[in-house]
Design a protein that fits this description.
Layout lengths: L18 E2 L5 E2 L7 H27 L6 E7 L4 E6 L4 E5 L5 E3 H10 L8 H17 L8 E3 L1
Antiparallel strand pairs: 1-2, 3-4, 4-5, 6-7
């Protein structure tokens, strides 16, 4: 047999500032977080962000090894995707910028954008990539990189 306990009484004036336990007593544990605990949580979060940034850097720095085999526009979702010969698929939002190297962008233009229908979104994307390549043409450094 299951016995149900009555719900705890909540003061409407409290507006969720404190948690109420089963006996109706205020639980102030969340309010008692010390400054040291806050700093520890912030440091842990910062370390996680730094790890993700490093992983992203390693990913984008490996572009010189990419051989692009397809470039597709999914206009209904505002995403374009590229596929490498090693099966790596990269899906990118149209409105976001990504650090693609000039060599990768040139491969995209050579392949031509695949789309189900002609659209201004497709034309704008192609123009944007060509513009980024043109802006990098005068530079002769190995680290040519532009946000796409």
């Amino acid at each position: 047999m299951i016995t149900l306990k009555p719900l705890p009484k909540i003061d409407p004036k409290d507006k969720g500032k404190k948690m109420i336990d089963e006996e109706g007593e205020s639980d102030t544990k969340s309010a008692d977080i010390t400054e040291a605990e806050k700093k520890f949580k912030q440091l842990a979060n910062d370390e996680e962000v730094a790890r993700k940034v490093q992983e992203d850097d390693e990913f984008w720095n490996a572009q010189q090894n990419w051989k692009i085999v397809s470039w597709k526009l999914h206009s209904s979702s505002g995403v374009h995707s590229i596929m490498t010969d090693e099966g790596l698929g990269i899906h990118m939002f149209i409105e976001d910028k990504y650090p693609l190297k000039k060599e990768v962008m040139s491969q995209l233009i050579e392949l031509k954008l695949e789309t189900k229908e002609d659209s201004t979104m497709a034309l704008e994307l192609i123009r944007f990539v060509k513009k980024q390549i043109a802006e990098l043409e005068p530079e002769d450094s190995d680290g040519d990189e532009k946000d796409l």
